[in-house]
């Protein structure tokens, strides 16, 4: 969602800000802007559309060593030049960029800004106007900033410029991610380390409700009550090449192809010197002490959670419930006596999941976060973290994070099971190796999969995915992948449920992609395929070697039956990718979506 960058130093800030914003494009946005400040004042450039549109309106002749930039994903007010950030106060003295949602902005507007004509529909403008108001009442800028922050309810990451002081950027955050990056004679601000890797890999974490005064040679962190905090920087372990597309046409394709490597890396990271899988004993204790695990997640991570439940229950014998985070907060089920919460989140920033984490922490329960981003909010705020080690995932459609989540959940289940005296009848390290090889085979079958996408999905209005058991969960993920990047109305259904309503949707030629990777339900899912075919559907059966039949359209290599989701999801991802290409959609940046969903 919205992204923030800032630079203060000796170099011209324009290009650094624009390049930083380009690196944040993956988060999703619909307008962008920068404000740069020199002795002549603040110059604001903002535009609806892409960074390339913004670039074309930036006056290259203006040189400025201080600046802030923003990508906006509309929440309050339509995507437009007027609603794009930065926003300015009435006199234009203050300029602000904001990520997050101010829940009480309307109340604040009515209470403080009766006499002010607002130029935009945003909650952000309310903040910057109030800062100026308080400053006009005689407060210093820092005091006005602090007082304003104390009024805000909701989430924010803020970077503020004061036209009368081009040596300072004021920064603060609450619930939304924001980092300060350190350099020699310059400092930067960024929603995500990736944005500023171009100039530094040294970053300082900020805590909620701190005020940070960023100068080119000094960063001062204060609590809201004015106590100065010292905090050591960390090194962002990212390689610039991790965030480049290289020779790939799209990040999504690159990330699909990275999956065998990611699985092998995860196995390595979770192996001890003897080669046995290992996990922090504190986490295993928590897994053993609980009487029920509650997995909380959204979107693709939720689908990984559904498969994770199978792993944990079947391998470690611990009961698991899986919940959609945006629902859980309003609809908390009757909890067991000693619950353990597992948050699954690629980004570690999903606001819906974070809201649940805050709530269950207040209730005194323990939480484990499984995430791809070390230092992310969900990781920091949970008791324990397991990392996915998938490398940055840039495409909005999650691919390698899903398979990484499954691999880590399988390892967690195995190590927990072992600690409870349950020995698997198979060697997980070996089976994950076989799975990685099988993914490689599938990634080499792109032409065949592209042909499926062309045949079934090039022009269709809708498509259905069916499966039973673990295949149903992969079907849900296949449908999500397809709908989010190709805009085909796609839904996943449990094969047995068709006759209870869904089958009414089947028309002549409706594509139905059926997964058949489980021996126990092989015949019943094929029975469901016959039912839809009899009603005119165009079925496409994807089965696994050993279970295949003559009518199957595609056969995936054989892997352990519990691990099939790691493999069967690959054709789902590739089918979605090629369908989106055929329909000329923006594969990496689908409309209306953001990579990191930081608003509830
Ligand atoms: O970062 P998270 O895993 O918490 O994100 C959750 C969902 O927003 C995410 O999985 C989303 O569904 C993906 N775009 C799906 O490809």
TrEMBL record:
Query: Where in or outside the cell?
Result: Cytoplasm
GO-annotated molecular function = carbohydrate derivative binding; glutamine-fructose-6-phosphate transaminase (isomerizing) activity
The Glutamine amidotransferase type-2 domain extends over: 2-217
Q: Which CDD domains match?
A: GFAT, SIS_GlmS_GlmD_1, SIS_GlmS_GlmD_2
Gene Ontology annotations for the cellular component aspect, listed alphabetically: cytosol
GO biological process entries: carbohydrate metabolic process; fructose 6-phosphate metabolic process; protein N-linked glycosylation; UDP-N-acetylglucosamine metabolic process
> In its keyword annotation, does this UniProt entry include rRNA-binding?
no
Which catalysed reactions does the entry list for this protein? D-fructose 6-phosphate + L-glutamine = D-glucosamine 6-phosphate + L-glutamate
- State the InterPro entries in the record: GATase_2_dom, GFAT, GFAT_N, GlmS/AgaS_SIS, GlmS/FrlB_SIS, Ntn_hydrolases_N, SIS_dom, SIS_dom_sf
Q: Does Coiled coil appear among the keywords? A: no
Which keywords does this Swiss-Prot/TrEMBL entry list? Aminotransferase, Cytoplasm, Glutamine amidotransferase, Repeat, Transferase
Q: Recorded E.C. number(s)?
A: 2.6.1.16
The record's active-site residues are 2, 595
Give the SIS domain ranges: 283-422, 452-590
Q: Which domain of life is it from?
A: Bacteria
NCBIfam families per UniProt: glmS, PRK00331.1
Q: What does this protein do?
A: Catalyzes the first step in hexosamine metabolism, converting fructose-6P into glucosamine-6P using glutamine as a nitrogen source.
- HAMAP family xrefs: GlmS
What does the subunit section of this Swiss-Prot or TrEMBL entry state? Answer: Homodimer.
Q: What is this protein called?
A: Glutamine--fructose-6-phosphate aminotransferase [isomerizing]
């Amino acid at each position: 969602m919205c992204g923030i960058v800032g630079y203060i130093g000796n170099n011209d800030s324009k290009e650094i800000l624009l390049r930083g914003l380009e690196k944040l494009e993956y988060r999703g946005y619909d307008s962008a802007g920068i404000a740069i400040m020199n002795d002549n004042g603040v110059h604001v450039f903002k535009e609806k559309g892409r960074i390339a549109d913004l670039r074309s309106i930036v006056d290259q002749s203006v040189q400025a060593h201080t600046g802030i930039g923003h990508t906006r994903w509309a929440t309050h007010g339509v995507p437009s030049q007027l609603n794009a950030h930065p926003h300015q106060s009435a006199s234009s003295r203050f300029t602000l960029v904001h990520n997050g949602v101010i829940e009480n902005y309307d109340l604040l507007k009515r209470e403080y800004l009766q006499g002010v004509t607002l130029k935009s529909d945003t909650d952000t403008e309310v903040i910057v106007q109030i800062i100026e108001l308080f400053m006009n009442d005689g407060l210093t800028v820092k005091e006005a900033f602090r007082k304003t922050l104390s009024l805000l309810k909701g989430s924010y990451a803020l970077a503020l410029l004061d036209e009368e002081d081009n040596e300072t950027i004021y920064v603060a955050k609450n619930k939304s991610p924001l980092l300060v990056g350190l350099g020699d004679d310059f400092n930067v601000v960024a929603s995500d380390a990736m944005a500023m890797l171009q100039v530094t890999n040294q970053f300082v974490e900020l805590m909620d409700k701190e005020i940070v005064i960023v100068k080119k040679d000094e960063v001062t962190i204060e609590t809201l009550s004015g106590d100065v905090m010292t905090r050591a920087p960390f090194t962002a372990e990212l390689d610039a090449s991790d965030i480049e597309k290289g020779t790939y046409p799209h990040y999504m394709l690159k990330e699909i192809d990275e999956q065998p490597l990611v699985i092998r890396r995860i196995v390595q990271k979770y192996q001890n010197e003897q080669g046995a899988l290992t996990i922090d004993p504190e986490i295993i204790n928590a897994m053993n002490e609980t009487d029920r695990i509650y997995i909380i997640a959204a979107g693709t991570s939720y689908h990984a959670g559904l498969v994770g439940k199978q792993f944990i229950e079947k391998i470690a014998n611990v009961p698991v419930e899986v919940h959609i985070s945006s629902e859980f907060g309003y609809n908390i089920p009757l909890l067991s006596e000693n619950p353990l919460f597992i948050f699954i989140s690629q980004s570690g920033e999903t606001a819906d999941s974070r809201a649940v984490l805050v709530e269950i922490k207040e209730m005194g329960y323990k939480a484990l976060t499984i995430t791809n981003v070390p230092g992310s909010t969900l990781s920091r705020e949970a008791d324990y973290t397991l990392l996915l080690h998938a490398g940055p995932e840039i495409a909005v459609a999650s691919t390698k994070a899903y398979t990484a989540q499954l691999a880590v959940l399988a390892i967690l289940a195995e190590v927990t099971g072992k600690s409870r005296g349950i020995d698997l009848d198979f060697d997980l390290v070996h089976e994950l190796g076989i799975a990685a090889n099988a993914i490689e085979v599938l990634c080499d079958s792109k032409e065949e999969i592209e042909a499926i996408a062309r045949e079934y999905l090039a022009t269709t209005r809708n498509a259905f995915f069916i499966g039973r058991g673990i295949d149903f969960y992969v079907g849900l993920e296949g449908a999500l992948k397809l709908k989010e990047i190709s805009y085909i109305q796609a839904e996943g259904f449990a094969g047995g449920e068709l006759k209870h309503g869904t089958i009414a949707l089947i028309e002549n030629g409706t594509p139905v992609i059926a997964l058949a990777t489980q021996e126990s339900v092989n015949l019943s899912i094929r029975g469901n395929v016959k039912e839809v075919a009899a009603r005119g559907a165009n079925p496409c059966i994807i089965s696994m070697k050993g279970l295949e039949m003559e009518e199957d359209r595609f056969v995936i290599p054989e892997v352990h039956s519990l691990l099939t989701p790691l493999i069967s999801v690959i054709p789902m991802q590739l089918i979605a990718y090629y369908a989106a290409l055929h329909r000329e959609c923006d594969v990496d940046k689908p409309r209306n979506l953001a990579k990191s969903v930081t608003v509830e």
